Amino acid sequence: MLMRTDPFRELDRMTQRLVGPGTWSKPWVMPMDAYREGDEYVVAFDIPGLTADAIDIDVERNMLTVKAERRPTAAAGSIKTELSERPLGAFSRQIMLAHTLDTEHIKADYDAGVLTLHIPIVERARPRKVSIGVGSGRAEISS
Fold first, then answer.
1. Are the beta carbons of 66 and 93 closer than 8 angstroms?
2. pTM score
3. First-last CA distance in the chain
4. Are 122 and 133 in contact (CB under 8 A)?
5. Which of 16, 41, 126, 135 is the most exposed place for a label (fewest CB within 10 A)?
C-alpha cells in the first residue's frame, strides 16, 4: 500500500554518515519497516534517544512526513566529551501513501526508540467475497 520505494536509500544513508549531522534542509534518513497486519498498515521508524515531543508527524493529502531532532545533551562546564558517535541534528522521512489508506485515523506510538504508526485500510479497499447465485444468474458481493 506504500507507493514509493527508494533503491538508493542505503547509499544515501552511508553518505550521510560521512557528511555530518542532519539539518532541516538536509536531514538524516530514519530507517523504517512497513508491513500489513490485518486491516491496517504498520510503519515503524527507528529514532532512538528522543522524547515523544521531539517528533512531529504530518499528513497532507497522501504524503506522510515524520520529522525529529536530536540535540546534544546539555553538558556542564566540567564535562569534556571524549567520543560522540550518535548522530545529532534533524531526521526526516516522507512516504507517499496509497489512496486506499485512511489518513484520518492514523495512530502513533513511541516506545523503546521506535515510532510505530498504524494506518487503517479504508473499507472499500478490503478484500471481499463474491457469492455465486444458482439459477438466478446473479452474483452478490459480501463483506
1. yes
2. 0.68
3. 20
4. no
5. 135
Burial-class residue 42 by CB neighbours within 10 Å (0-12, 13-18, 19+): middle
Report, as an integer, the average pLDDT of 1-26: 57
Reading across the β-sheet that carries 63-70, which strands appear in turn?
A: 28-29, 89-96, 63-70, 55-60
Who wins on pLDDT, 13 or 120?
A: 120
Residues 80-129: pLDDT tens digits? 777 777 777 888 899 999 988 999 999 999 999 999 999 999 887 667 78
| Residue in 64, 120, 52, 60 with CA at minimum distance from that of residue 92 | 64
Closest of 137, 93, 116 to residue 42, by C-alpha: 116
